[in-house]
Amino acid sequence: MTYLFKKGISKNGIPFLIALLFTNNCFADFSCDINYQNAHSELLELDYKSADVFIKLGKKINAENKLYVLLDSYTQFLKCVTADDNNSYLNFKQYKKVNLSAVADDTSSSIWKTYSLAEIHLQYAFCEAKFGSYLDAVSDINKAYDYLLKIKNRNPEFIPAKKCLGLLLALIGNVPDDYKWATNALGLKGDVTIGLKILGEAYLATQQKKEWNYIEAETLFYYAFATLNLSSNETELEKTYSSVKQKASTNPLLCYAASSIALKSGKNNDALFFLNCDEAKTHYTQFPYLIYLNGLAHLNKLDTTATSLFKNYLSAYKGQNYIKAAYRNIAWCYKVNNANELYAETMQEVLKHGSAKTDEDKQAEKDAKSTNVINIQLLKARLLFDGGYYSKALNALIEKPPANNLKTHKDLMEFEYRLARIYHKMNLTNKAIELYQYVYTSCKNYPYYFAANAALNLGLIHEQEKNFEKAAYYYQLAIELKNYEYKNSIQLKAKAGLSRVQKK
Fold first, then answer.
1. Which CATH code of 2.60.40, 1.25.40, 1.10.3130, 1.10.287 fits the domain covering 3-230?
2. Quick one: 385 exposed, middle or buried, by C-beta within 10 A (0-12, 13-18, 19+)?
3. Range with lowest mean pLDDT among 147-151, 234-238, 243-247
4. How far apart are the C-alpha atoms of 279 and 53, rounded to whole Å?
5. Residue 322 binned pLDDT confidence (cut-offs 50, 70, 90)
6. Most CB atoms within 10 A, among 245, 390, 419, 453?
7. Cα 275 from chain centre
8. Domains 3-230 and 374-504 share a fold
9. pLDDT at position 109, please?
């Protein structure tokens, strides 16, 4: 069903709308007309057929409107991101010169032209980075950055560009150390706090100003994405979540955002609700990662029917990411059911399939190569904790005395770390602080992530208590640690925290 019909405009009203378009300077080279806006809204719902109706109608009315080139690129971009496979990427890549030339060759001085070039470069930068073409990504980021700064100088309240600039500043501000050379060489300067502030302002404007209503869902998605992945501010994440969850059942991208935040925030039942609503299920085929997230949500409550969901993901998904993690998660399901032979067999599948680019896949591969036997007591406590079932996690953790059940140094340290995490979430802050400090001291010279995440959480606790000097100290400790699991994600959050408290 198309956007116009959803809004209650009958088919008989379309000739009137066409006439209206003809009388409103619709032949401008860059015209943000009603068809453009409606097509954009449909694309955000991944309804490509409805979007295509509006795109074709807009092109028929004004073949010279170059904003439809941006929509064509946006369509290809969304298909690439949601499918997340090499064929989609190569298909998108082949249109790069065509899309950019179609916009750049126009002689218009419209701000929309500059914005279109910035947006297209950003789209390609995101996909190039995702598929390993880092030099191309850096080049496109640099070009997008230049275009966005030009718009900022010309019209700082041009909201479409403001949402992109906010996201880009946040991303540049959180570039991992391994890639800092690239941004430094180009003179790119970012800041997570400033980027999120600009994104928040852009989102507010999309709600308050009618002309920008059509990008409200997109701006909210960017804001949620940046807050979840680039910030460790739990208060801000909770505020973002309250906005996203209201729209999650009607938009697949916001369903993805809401369920991701819910899973990271210990709201597992919320995630299950979002991921099993009709809107999510309708898009499982074109957006298989939703199936993977649904598997995680089931696994977090020790519901081993998650096995079938991870297998469905492996069947539906044609890319390389989260393959190893999916096999590892299937193995965990077997372990929870004490099916030790199936667990061992499935862990060997981790080494045969997929790539090790994401933190989750890297860790899955490391787990599969390890000769240590996984401790089921710690596994259950970890999963239940991730789901937000803190009392059950605590019961699982202490059901057997550590001395009788934990055989390795890593297991002993993980026990203390998991206990600290549970106490932290149960607001037993003093106990959590004591254990985090013990874990940091005991693990800082080992390749576990426990020490770094303990330091990060100590920073969060002291920031919340407005002891910004201590918070900065612990964030810096987390940043300085090297060679441990989940390094990128922990360091990104620690850097964001340090940036926040240094401004206090």
1. 1.25.40
2. buried
3. 234-238
4. 21
5. very high
6. 453
7. 16
8. yes
9. 92
pLDDT digits over 86-119, tens only?
A: 999 999 999 999 999 999 999 999 999 999 999 9
Length of the chain: 504
Mean pLDDT of 21-27: 41
Q: Structurally, what CATH architecture does the domain formed by 374-504 represent?
A: Alpha Horseshoe (1.25)
Answer whether residue 26 shows pLDDT above 70. no
- This prediction has a pTM of 0.88
Report CA-CA distances (Å) from 231 to 134, 169, 453, 496.
23, 13, 14, 5
Residue identified by tokens 């490509």 is: 48
Residue 288's nearest CA partner among 437, 81, 115, 464 is 81
Could you tell me which residues come within 8 angstroms of residue 107 by beta carbon, excluding any fewer than 6 positions away?
none
Domain ranges of the chain: 3-230, 232-305, 320-370, 374-504
Find out whether 131 and 85 touch, Cβ atoms under 8 Å.
Answer: no
In the chain, count H helices and then E strands: 30, 0
